[in-house]
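Case study 2.
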Amino acid sequence: MIVQSEISGEALPELALPTEILGLVSINTATRLRAEPALLAIDTSLGTVVSLSCGVKVWQSVSDNAMAHAEVVGEVIRHALAKAELTVSDIDAVVMGTGPGSFTGLRVGMAAAAAFAIGLAKPLLPVLSHEASAIEFFNSNPAASTVRIVQDARRKELFVTEYTAPQALLPVNTVAPAVIARAEFTAAGSDHTPTRVSGSGLLQAALVRLAYGLEFGSKQPVYLRDPDVRQPVPVKSVFQR
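Prediction:
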């Protein structure tokens, strides 16, 4: 059962983007967008985050319930649309957070984003969730030169991605996402452990790529670890043939 009090929403600070970005988006994207394109971003790698942007204005609705992604994602989307005073038909493109996240939780948000994009015949724009967190970090710490996004991967392991300061408004990925044993990990002052994925970061990553004609990443999910459930392997016969 969905507990309405678990869902919260608010208007966020405007996106930290130059004013000419939105004009470039309208020119460079293959899809004809309005002067102030409306993007919907969905991520379920850490709780459920749904954010909407119209121009540089941003609204976000969240549920921090890490065990009920499937139950709440639809309601969180409706909550975000209501907060932004937008309808489904207003959406120009859908941003999909691709993790890292748990096998079950991450797939819920990615499936919802893909369904929206297909149903609306709009572009589906994949963004690594750790990149969104790095954008959030650098926006809040403009003097910082590096950041490591650190996420608990369970079983005494951490999932870590490293970035350096943004070039062309996007952080530069210097060390690919990887699982590290806690015993081998040395903490540093540049570490950032997000409690939820930044909706503004997802939207900024997508808008910058659209504006400058940059490629988006893979639409494949990045899991914290391989799923425990695997397809059964046929049992070998003990008899010689």
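Strands lie at 7-12, 38-43, 48-54, 57-63, 93-97, 124-127, 146-154, 157-167, 170-181, 191-192.
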